[in-house]
């Protein structure tokens, strides 16, 4: 019986292992989750913004296929803690492919998406002082999920399906497909997939394996004591601001960072970035924290794995050894489709 090892207990590794259990019968799947009780991974920190539209055509196909699967499956929606807040993706101008991509999202998720100019978006109330010529892709059937909750639920499903779920870190992986757990006996596999997110590079480097161009970068957002209201989940490319409603009337708001090549795990928050987020939120959304509550703004920062393509996908390193990482701040919305594609490709490789 062929043996597959998936290394990494984040949303990428867990969803891939779940797909493998569903799609490859007669295969022994072993999932090595890392340290589940001290999670400092991207999946635990993720904002979970989920929509069908992305300006990059490949990412748009993955995001809309993932959203279509979520929309068609109430069980998956419950497992993922899906909240339908609507989504706005604001761009400085109409891109060359935008109209076609909007049509592609429309085909996969009907009655959801429309393209608005700045004037029509501003008339809806949430956004202000929009740059002339800017356009927005507005989705009704989109919002956010909890990658953390989905991963926890899928871990139960994987164990139920008879696959082995093994807690604890992997020390190294060899070119020959040998997996060496910390403090445990090594084991040989026909296929090894390293899905250890921001830790992937270091793990591969221990045995001189190439990493295919992976990098790490900090992502930081703030949780505010109240919300701007009405914006739903949004990305504003004209300022970089993104956000969504959070529990108890609060909001999650963020701006991109430029902190590259940092060690994996929880990251120190940058107070200057927190201040910038509040400045931009005031200008774009008219949001100001209530008087006396500015101290209740808290920052969350964690490290993510990036790849030049921006996509979570299966990448061969040497025969039988792959990575499945590189979500680049967006795998929460693409992981369902990306894991399906990856599992199919692994099934073909084992035939
Ligand atoms: C702050 C933040 C906000 C985000 N917001 C969004 C968003 O709004 N929408 C969206 O679509 N995406 C978002 N993302 C991106 C998305 O959450 C990530 O792409 C996704 O969670 C990455 O999952 P992963 O499984 O690749 O990595 P991780 O979640 O980092 O998981 C890697 C796992 O590997 C394990 N591991 C590490 N080393 C080893 C080892 N040696 N042996 C075994 N296991 C090991 C770790 O314990 C960990 O569980 C965000 C990311 C961050 C950091």
From TrEMBL:
Superkingdom assignment: Bacteria
Span of domain FAD dependent oxidoreductase: 3-342
SUPFAM superfamilies with a match to the protein in the record: FAD/NAD(P)-binding domain (SSF51905)
Keyword annotations of the record: Oxidoreductase
Enzyme class: oxidoreductase
UniProt EC number: 1.-.-.-
MF (Gene Ontology): oxidoreductase activity
UniProt entry tagged with the keyword Kinase: no
Protein name in the entry: FAD-dependent oxidoreductase
Organism per entry: Planomonospora corallina
